[in-house]
């Protein structure tokens, strides 16, 4: 999925747009009309250029993350056969980061990657040319309880799902959207003390290089 280029362009490397929340269904209960088209309109209007659509569940994602840590030795043994990749939703310690970087892999950061002060320390150490961002929506939003939330500049109005109207322009409280990727960027730029536009361009180029080279 893509739109015309804007001043600051984003590629979300993890958007679970097939989730039932975007059909208005939460825990098998219908709360509002399907609104995926509105969710996409918001993202395109705010600089989203492309998305990598993923599926599954938050539980499956957590299992995949845990498995990736245990499989680092296997990956290392087969390093010559690896042509490139990214560790999705990284929230590990510095030693795991270093092992992943040694394999030439990229690091994907979302709201779940920024939940603790230790997380913020680790993301400072990711080389700019190995960094990517994602939302993992509808999960992994940046929450007010997260230490990096104080660095969030761009905020969108949100209401409880029971009061949500698809034509209101609001978001559903507690449901992440691709447009919120800007918040991940804002936190990263602040804690890394980097120019946000230069960082955005570097991340965009990293993602294009790995996933869309020659596209």
TrEMBL record:
Binding site for a divalent metal cation 1: 136
Secretion signal, residue range per the UniProt entry: none
Keywords: Hydrolase, Metal-binding, Nuclease
PROSITE patterns from the UniProt entry: TATD_3
UniProt superkingdom: Eukaryota
Binding, a divalent metal cation 2: 88
PANTHER family given in the database record: DEOXYRIBONUCLEASE TATDN1, TATD FAMILY DEOXYRIBONUCLEASE
Record function comment: Deoxyribonuclease which catalyzes (in vitro) the decatenation of kinetoplast DNA, which are circular DNA catenated to each other, producing linear DNA molecules. Plays an important role in chromosomal segregation and cell cycle progression during eye development probably via its DNA decatenation activity.
Family the UniProt entry places it in: Belongs to the metallo-dependent hydrolases superfamily. TatD-type hydrolase family.
The name this protein goes by in its record: Deoxyribonuclease TATDN1
